[in-house]
Amino acid sequence: MNYFENAVMLIGGLVFFLFGMKVMSSSLEKMAGGKLENMLRKVTAKPLLSIVLGAGITIAMQSSSATTVMLVGLVNSGIMLFEQTISVIFGANIGTTFTGWLLTLSGIHSSRWYLMILRPEVFSPILALIGIGMIMFSKKERRISIGTVFVGFAVLMQGMTMMKDSVSPLAQTSWFKDMLVKFENPLFGLLIGIVLTAVIQSSAATIAILMSFAISGTGITFQMAIPIIMGLNIGTCATSLISCIGTETKAKRVAVVHVMIKIIGAVFWLAVFVVLSHMFFADATAKPINGVGIAAVHTAFNILTTLLLIPFTKPLVRLTELLVREKEEKKEETEDDLKWLDERLLRSPSIAISECNNISGHMARLAEENLFAAISLFDNFDEEAVSKIKAVEDKLDRYEDRLGTYLVKLSTMAVSSQDSRVISKILHTIGDFERLGDHAVNLFYAASEINRKGLAFTPAAKKEIDVLASAIREILTMTHECYVTADPELAFRVEPLEQVIDKLTATIKTNHIARLQKGGCSIEMGFILSDILNNFKRISDHCSNIAVAVIEVDKGAFDTHEYLSGVKFGNLDFNRIYDAFDKKYTIEE
């Protein structure tokens, strides 16, 4: 027997298994898109619903560790409350056992054709062939993702087969049989399960290794397997503990409560198992365990732990808060810190993209409110409003910088075409939101100069500016609303109003020159008016850019120049909307 070759095969099988698992989970999450984020937003105070959601998300992601890490990120970014995560964690612990049941297919031994086709050796190559065909010849993204899932699953099962074949010869060796005696000590088995899973960082992989030994007839018994299964449930918490490093207190509590749930469950049920085994089931627990038995024990442990602890959710929360105390930290606004752009959310791109979209919507609101405040300064100059305008402009600068950096990282990951379009939309628009903030500051400087020098518009100029300011307010409101609601029909109305604003600014400039020639307006006030008009025109241009981005997301392509060239005059709908705005905002030439 060549132990080196078997060891290499075991390691190779583990690598295949982990790679297949990664490919499967990434493709499944990509197919789910924003649905995972929407599911998490439905988490309520109802524990049963939260458990079901946690299980569903974990089955989709094929990893309870990934779900818990995602929860750490969501709590750290303020999207979820710590208390809401506990029931989700219970569900994730149950959902992760689904993989074990899939792996039981490796243990099928039957001459009947309808059972033979369920053996990985038979169906994995067929599944891989179908998957490769879908990847190579399909143009639809969903089919390509499904094909990738098939290939990932085939690779995973091939890894399982390799691990099983690599350990089969051990059943005949005396040293291995002697080593198994040590596993009869439940504490030793618990420790092995913890350490192995903490190193691999995948409870599914540890289950796969354990199944490989059991299926190969190496003599693994219930007495040996059950403590290992309980240990691997604790070991899988290592990933979430690592992920909470550098997070806020509430996020750390998510990882700690995850460990507590596993430890309490393992200690309690291991004690129950040891007592019952010695008193009533010594012969039964000494029998060899198979793949189905391992999957059943894994599922039973997590369900029983959930049933044990779910009535004590509030005490768990209080205990965790005692263990992880709130530190004295500077109370700063979450908006300034942008803590919701948590790097941990990058593990779940669809959720990260959804949150980026929400943040860019917040930018739209801030830009709108800031410009409204700046425009109002021409009627009522207020020093307090001035300081707020500058603060918001600084905030918009930070938003653009942080969002842009975060989105560049997101764009390198495997995401659905819809998510990719959302990333493009945000990257196309955050610069416009930031520039709107700059124009608010420019308008403040103009209003400040008028106030400082004691200047005033002529009645005719004031009337014209009021009409233009009303049009600017409407285009800002429309732009904000169409962006947040992703409404292409409302976005279509922005460009006609932008054209009307261009006409208004040109008319006001012409009227100003006429007044200047008649001596009805000062040259100094003319410079300020010109500056205001230029800013108003640029504001409408940025609104047009944002609206076009919303429309292009709906169309699935980004070509602003081509769209604007095709939509302007000559388009009946455009002309109708333009005429309506032209009548609404009219000034005499």
Number of domains: 2
Count of extended strands: 0
What pattern of helices and strands is seen along the backbone?
HHHHHHHHHHHHHHHHHHHHHHHHHHHH
Q: Which spans of ≥5 residues are poorly predicted at pLDDT below 50?
A: 329-337
Overall structural class, as computed from helix and strand content, comes to mainly alpha
Strand content: under 5%
Distance between the termini: 99 Å
pLDDT averaged residue by residue:
82
- What share of the residues lie within helices? over 70%
Assembly state: single chain
Q: Radius of gyration, rounded?
A: 32 Å
| Largest pleated sheet | none
Q: Given the C-alpha coordinates, what overall shape results?
A: elongated
- How many individual helices? 28
Task: Provide structural commentary.
This protein is an all-alpha fold. The protein has helices spanning 3-32, 35-41, 47-61, 64-76, 82-95, 98-103, 113-116, 120-137, 141-167, 174-180, 186-200, 203-215, 222-235, 238-243, 249-279, 282-285, 291-309, 313-323, 334-337, 349-376, 383-411, 417-453, 459-485, 488-492, 494-517, 523-555, 560-567, 572-584. The protein has two domains: 3-323, no CATH class; 348-584, Methane Monooxygenase Hydroxylase, Chain G, domain 1 (Up-down Bundle), CATH 1.20.58. It is 78% helix and 0% strand. Mean pLDDT is 82; it is low at 329-337.
